[in-house]
Amino acid sequence: MSQTTPVPTKKFECFSMTGYAQARAQQDGWAVRVSVKSVNHRFLDLKLRMPEGFDLYELRLRQIVREKIHRGHVEVTVGVEPGNAAPVQVNRDLVQSYLKAAEALRQETRAATDMDVVALLRLPGVITGVTATVPEREEEQERLGRLLDGGLRDALAKLDDMRRAEGRHLVEELRNRLARIGGHVEQVRGLATTLRPAFSRRLDAKLKELLGGTGIDPARLAQEAALLAERSDISEELDRLRSHLQQFGKLLDGAGEMGKKLDFLLQEMHREANTMLSKTPGVESEALAITSLALEIKAEIEKLREQVQNIE
Length: 312
What we know:
It contains nine helices and six strands; from the N terminus they run βββαββααβαααααα. With 312 residues, the protein is an alpha+beta fold. It folds into three domains: 19-83 and 137-161, Ribosomal Protein S5, domain 2 (2-Layer Sandwich), CATH 3.30.230; 88-129, no CATH class; 163-308.
């Protein structure tokens, strides 16, 4: 009887939208530097800075970024230098201006110091290098394009490492908060079962106060207490909260973009918590305990929303 090989379970990962990385590549007389910085944003907002004249490579570099990053404000800075030694240019007009100023100062102070050529070359603006320009031949342009592609991919790979590490930390924090919310929900569920007797006691005391001790029909009292309990029933809200928590956990186990889906679930969870607060009025100890727990649930949801904003 043949045995089938078990298919390994794929481990999915969550990516943060925050990170920074840089890379350098050199080949065929060219050297490129690429830095990538990303922070959270609702959509992909890509800013690409390149040297003047190198715009022909912009579309291909943007496409590479879009393949790797789907959300966030991303800033990519590209620098290009000739890899070989570039000829040095001397701003001779500026040198003459420096010399005239130095001679005038020497005459005023009667100084006998000789002019140092090396020191003159170090003055601001005297020496300038040749700025890198796009090669004219198409095959050379393509070689430089591949070098730029490689530098950008290296930087993005390093960025992914940072975003992946931050994502693991975020998921751990999210799971801890989910567990706390789940615990609060079950506490509320237990307290909610005790509300009907509490409402009966409340009605009984109120009616005795109003009727001046006159006897109260127990059946009527039970009916009114049941109506009050029905209006304050939060079982549906608790069931929906539990369902949202389960869906949230499944999304953390899934793949792809999850930030927007998580944010939507948190909006729904926030709505259920608000409804619970509005449906548990009164000063009974049980209702006050539910109110306190519902407020804690809301606080945890708000913290979750802050953290989810940074998930891709």
